[in-house]
Amino acid sequence: MNTRADISRGAGPGLSIGTVSTLTGLVALGVLIIAGNAADPMMAAHAWTFFFLTVLGLLITGLWAGSLNGRNPFDPAIYEDTIVKFGVAASMFWGIAGFLVGVIIALQLTFPNIFYFPDLGWTNFGRLRPLHTSAVIFAFGGNVLIATSFYVVQRTCRTRLAGGMWPWFVFWGYNLFIVVAGTGYLLGVTQSKEYAEPEWYADLWLTIVWVAYLLVFLGTLWKRKEPHIYVANWFYLSFIVTIAMLHIVNNLAIPVSLTGSKSYQLFAGVQDALTQWWYGHNAVGFFLTTGFLAIMYYFIPKQVNRPVYSYRLSIVHFWSLIFIYIWAGPHHLHYTALPQWAQTLGMVFSVMLWMPSWGGMINGVMTLSGAWDKLRTDPIVRMMIVALAFYGMSTFEGPLMSVRAVNALSHYTEWGIAHVHSGSMGWVGFISFGALYCVTPWLWKRKALYSKALVEWHFWLATLGILFYIVAMYVAGITEGLMWRAYNEFGFLEYAFIETVKAKHIMYMIRVAGGLLYLTGALLMAYNLVRTALGHGAAGEAAAPDAPKTATPALQPAE
């Protein structure tokens, strides 16, 4: 029995459609029972949301399957590009939503007398702030990672996505999780863990979806026609596997009731804090770093039409990064009840992390060797190289802030906010924008983007927005930290807390301006991508030369 050939041929479209539909139907039945016996109104709202969306999915799947008339919708000779198109659209939708909420909460902090609505509890900062972080990290970033990983693994393996209907289950299932998590924040449903706020039932659903994602990715690698596994796929795989482990361990909880929204964490006290920041830091490390490094290792060489500067360095970069990153979490818990040896362990590994991080940055930048002119002529390349510059700055600053003496000044201040947004807006945002700008004309078979000038506008608006944001927050954070530790001649604190808040007001106003510039750039990008997909302007109607329609040409180097 040739297992690889069987996987490649598949067992017919009906099997994957049937298994996905069966699982979805069982979930719909289960949540209907919960909805009828919900212990609290929040669980009732989410159970009915699950029910209606899963039933809608079943109806659409049934109508679609009935229209096939014997046609195989999962033809192994054709790449599965439709799901990547949906991923591009979802990424831009959630990105704009997340950036908009970020601007709103920045306005709330700057002008609380105008943007605070006591009668509308769901608009409070405490509910909108996790909505912002989840929207930009998990909704925008997650959809970018899923879409690009599905695109890259097919091209580098020269085979269609494995699993038939299961990649679609991953895409829609993940976005259902985003909807449930986001509405939960507005309803006040949270387990109060940074980057892990959704309650037990949303976590359980995400686990099912994530296991399916892992199996689809592994199945595609298994049936590849290209013998070599390109380094980008190693980074994607590390992101998928490690996030699964982090998610499961950090969200171990005991529900109060199987029909209620509330649960209690399995861990408590300092053990819970250590588990949370082992998760939290590695969510940054493996969701926001290795996943987006995979994007860098595919799209920069592809866009500049040059090989990776050093493939050997990329392998060293991969293994050193994933080994060291996993130990760095305790640096979030300096000066706490965590034993000092554990704090020091996190600090040491954080400092070590500087070296592999910069190795990856150098590898990406030096890939432009022989094509440096593209920094001047191609704004997409410029955007991705600036992303690497922000990656380099953030991965130098992170180890610096992990040193206990520096952490004494920086922690709990706006310096941390500046650091996070330098990485998220500069590194994650720009490398994502670059990938979406690359992949859109390739997917829709267009000659070029609708408007190169709009990409230039986006680049400069977003770059200025980031600089306004982070410079303001660096000034605010250092000012705040110094005021907190200032003593008068009698040994008392020099400043009351409210004085430190007042001192930051002008910086908060500058942050709002930076956020508005960044949001404006994203809106221009969305407009540009829509017009590109429609074939307007420079996009024209001709097929892009580097976007072949089939996955089964004679064996040749993968794309």
UniProtKB/TrEMBL annotation:
Binding site for Cu cation: 281, 331-332
Binding site for heme b 2; high-spin: 419
One Pfam family of this chain: COX1
Chain ranges passing through the membrane: 12-35, 47-65, 86-111, 131-153, 165-188, 200-222, 234-258, 278-299, 311-328, 348-368, 380-396, 416-439, 459-486, 506-527
GO cellular component, one term: plasma membrane
Keyword Nucleus: no
Alphabetically ordered keywords of this record: Cell membrane, Copper, Electron transport, Heme, Iron, Membrane, Metal-binding, Respiratory chain, Translocase, Transmembrane, Transmembrane helix, Transport
Database matches in Gene3D superfamilies: Cytochrome c oxidase-like, subunit I domain (1.20.210.10)
Sequence segments annotated as region (Disordered): 540-559
Annotated compartments: Cell membrane
InterPro entries: Cyt_c_oxase-like_su1_dom, Cyt_c_oxase-like_su1_sf, Cyt_C_Oxase_1, Cyt_c_Oxase_su1_BS, Cyt_c_oxidase_cbb3_su1
Predominant location category: membrane
GO molecular function: cytochrome-c oxidase activity; heme binding; metal ion binding
Record-given protein name: cytochrome-c oxidase
Originating organism: Hyphomonas polymorpha PS728
